[in-house]
Amino acid sequence: PPPILISSSPIPRPIPSHQGPPSPSPPSLSLSPSWQGAFLVTQAVAKALVESGLSGGSIVHLGSVVGKVGNLGQVNYAASKAGVEALAKTAAKELARYGIRCNTVVPGFIRTPMTDKVPPKVLDKFAAMVPMGRLGEPEDVADVCAFLASDESRYITGASLEVTGGLFI
Questions:
Q1: Is the peptide bond before 26 cis (omega within 30 degrees of 0)?
Q2: Which residues span the domain enclosing 138?
Q3: What is the per-residue pLDDT across 150-167, written as a single tens digit (0 to 9) for each?
Q4: Is the pLDDT of residue 76 over 80?
Q5: Dihedral of CA 81/131/147/98: which sign?
Q6: Catalytic residue among 77, 81, 103, 136
Q7: Taking Cα atoms as reference points, which of 89, 101, 112 lies closest to residue 10?
Q8: CATH code for the domain of 39
Q9: Total domains present in the chain
Q10: Is the residue at 25 inside a domain?
Q11: Known active-site residue 77
């Protein structure tokens, strides 16, 4: 089985609190892409690791600062990312006895193809909110994921590490 899992989920279509899909909601509009995907892949990898009898492993989920603080028009995304973080903490408690660590990386404003669509004036406003004065780069997140996947983080489990440049401190 793979000893390391880095789980990143797609971003669902934004849904404000006062609007929403009909019930039952279509999977593309629900929490499924983020939360259910993270749950299913965690379950599959954890099962394989436990059944292998090998000790150890690292599961790293990508959350979002939006899961901690919310965001206008993204009630479904915020709820799903908060759920991913709770999933990781619960899995950490359940899997620690097998030597399997489970953590969450919580990015803030990161320069990605998604942010490339945002007008520069708006990006400048976001960057001004960050104490470090800039948006994060994908490498900033990747480095934290690599650390959590490595044996250098062997005593870290159930943690949520923010990669936000100090946003919200």
A1: no
A2: 4-11+33-163
A3: 999 999 999 999 999 999
A4: yes
A5: negative
A6: 77
A7: 112
A8: 3.40.50.720
A9: 1
A10: no
A11: yes
